[in-house]
């Protein structure tokens, strides 16, 4: 409690008379500078890796080795001796990978990886006291945890389950042989994703290292064409330039909007006690919008690094253009125009959502939505604000699902009505997201309660009333479980 009060008082050192906050362009702490420097070095290393260590010139083992060495160097440069936690976790889970049976490998890997990550999160609270840490080694640890558990579940699917019990996607990604130590290290610690991700599938990564990545994706498109002796060679240069432009714009917005509208604005006396409810609602939206560019910047730059190395090709779109969004972590346009909570979440931190679906949502027999939100909160850390966000998110998701399933079909009769419905649901979605994610940024309990009290807990109350009194139709869960190969074969036979 003392730590929370201290953090809360520190957050309220802004002006108590209004929302104006002085902008400082040169106040970025050293960890952020190290992060940007490492990612820029990784970008140049990725171009070099693609041009001079291409699969046609170099063996897969050499590519694995260089990708691993660069990754280890970058994390040591950024986090110093704290990366020992990263190496300990990797070695522990490789021991499980080698010794555990295929029927239990996913369980042991999951509990060890998540347990170690949680212990590190707890130590950060007691040692570093709610700050944006100068030694925030948890970022790479979170990415590695995703990869360890993803790989363990895919090995379990390939070696410990019957093929007919797998979904189509699980069958495609199932791994039939345990990886070598070099492959394991390269997958977890490669320089392209060790700092900021994203998580990816082991099969896709090995195909990239061995030079089969783009050909596999192109084969899905061109396999019907007769007489095609060779595939075109897609270049990632255009995609990299485009994503770098987005990253630069996001960085500019971070240095302006984020500094001009920090989250501390939500805790001054003007906001809590003087502004009316609608003003608070709109200002909350502006402040939460201003907190997004740093994520846009980090994830888009990480995506560009992978593309520069030749990884991330996803196929050909309907217009015949090559696409490089296999590893993209967000779709900015769909986020900003989302008309439902579900659509928003599907396009925000995409690879983490895919991981949660892979290791939790599709596999747990009870309360999949609730358990998935709990796992997401635990993965992010143990700050109380995370649990406020994910508890609120669970309520909002269930309420939004009930409203959508019961009423959406009434607004599809005409184009005009549908447009009006989309405008209203867009505004409701954006405001609901702002209300939900505010504690995620605030971290502590007291500022979160102060904010929600000033908003009269309106979204919590509305969501609870909807869940209690509005029936959830059965079709809301109809598509939860993926089709297995057995069901697909049976459907074709019928």
Helical residue percent? 55-70%
Gyration radius (Cα, Å) is 24 Å
| Unreliable parts | 1-5, 11-29, 130-135, 475-479
Largest sheet: 2 strands, antiparallel
Q: What structural class do the secondary elements suggest?
A: mainly alpha
The fraction of residues in strands falls at under 5%
Strand order of the largest sheet: 1-2
> What's the average pLDDT?
85
Number of helices: 23
InterPro entries: LPLAT_7/PORCN-like (IPR049941), MBOAT_fam (IPR004299)
Main location: endoplasmic reticulum
GO biological process, one term: phosphatidylserine acyl-chain remodeling
Membrane topology: Multi-pass membrane protein
List keywords for this structure.
mainly alpha, 494 residues, 23 helices
Report on the architecture of this protein.
By secondary structure, the protein is an all-alpha fold. Helices cover 66% and strands 1% of the residues. The protein is built from 23 helices and two strands. Strands 1-2 form a two-stranded antiparallel sheet. A hairpin with a 5-residue loop joins strand 1 (315-316) and strand 2. Helix 6 packs across helix 17 and helix 19 (384-407) packs across helix 22. The longest helix has 28 residues, at 415-442. The termini are far apart. The model is unreliable at 1-5, 11-29, 130-135 and 475-479 (pLDDT under 50). One of its GO terms (biological process) is phosphatidylserine acyl-chain remodeling.
């Amino acid at each position: 409690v003392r730590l929370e009060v201290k953090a809360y008082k520190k957050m309220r050192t802004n002006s108590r008379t209004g929302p104006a906050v002085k902008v400082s362009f040169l106040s970025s702490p050293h960890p952020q500078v190290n992060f940007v420097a490492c990612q820029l070095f990784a970008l140049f290393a990725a171009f070099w890796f693609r041009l001079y260590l291409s699969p046609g010139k170099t063996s897969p083992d050499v590519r694995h080795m260089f990708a691993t060495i660069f990754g280890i160097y970058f994390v040591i440069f950024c986090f110093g001796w704290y990366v020992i936690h990263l190496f300990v976790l990797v070695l522990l889970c490789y021991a499980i990978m080698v010794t555990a049976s295929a029927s239990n490998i996913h369980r042991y890997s999951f509990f060890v990886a998540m347990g170690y990550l949680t212990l590190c999160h707890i130590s950060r609270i007691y040692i570093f006291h709610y700050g944006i840490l100068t030694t925030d080694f948890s970022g790479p640890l979170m990415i590695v945890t995703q990869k360890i558990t993803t790989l363990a579940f895919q090995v379990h699917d390939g070696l410990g389950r019957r093929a007919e019990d797998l979904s189509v996607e699980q069958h495609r990604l199932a791994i039939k042989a345990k990886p070598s130590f070099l492959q394991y290290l390269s997958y977890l610690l490669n320089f392209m994703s060790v700092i900021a991700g994203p998580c990816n599938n082991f099969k896709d990564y090995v195909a990239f290292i061995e030079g089969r990545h783009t050909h596999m994706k192109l084969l899905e498109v061109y396999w019907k064409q007769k007489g095609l002796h060779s595939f075109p060679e897609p270049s990632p240069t255009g995609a990299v330039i485009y994503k770098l432009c987005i990253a630069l714009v996001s960085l500019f917005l971070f240095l302006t909007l984020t500094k001009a509208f920090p989250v501390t604005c939500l805790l001054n006396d003007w906001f809590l006690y003087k502004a009316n409810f609608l003003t608070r609602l709109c200002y909350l939206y502006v402040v939460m919008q201003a907190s997004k560019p740093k994520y846009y910047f980090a994830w888009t730059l990480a995506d560009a690094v992978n593309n520069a190395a030749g990884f991330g090709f996803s196929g050909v779109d309907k217009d015949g253009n090559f696409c490089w969004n296999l590893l993209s972590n967000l779709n900015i346009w769909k986020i900003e125009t989302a008309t439902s909570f579900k659509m928003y979440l599907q396009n925000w931190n995409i690879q983490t959502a895919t991981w949660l679906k892979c290791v939790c949502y599709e596999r747990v027999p009870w309360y999949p939505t609730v358990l998935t939100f709990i796992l997401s909160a635990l993965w992010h850390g143990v700050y109380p604000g995370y649990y406020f966000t994910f508890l609120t998110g669970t309520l909002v998701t269930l309420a939004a699902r009930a409203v959508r399933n019961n009423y959406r079909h009434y607004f599809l009769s005409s184009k005009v009505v549908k447009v009006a419905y989309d405008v209203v649901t867009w505004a409701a979605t954006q405001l609901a997201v702002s209300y939900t994610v505010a504690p995620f940024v605030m971290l502590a309990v007291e500022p979160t309660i102060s904010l929600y009290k000033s908003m009269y807990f309106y979204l919590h109350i509305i969501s609870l009333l909807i869940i209690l009194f509005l029936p959830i139709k059965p079709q809301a869960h109809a598509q939860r479980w993926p089709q297995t190969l057995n069901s697909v074969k049976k459907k074709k036979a019928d």
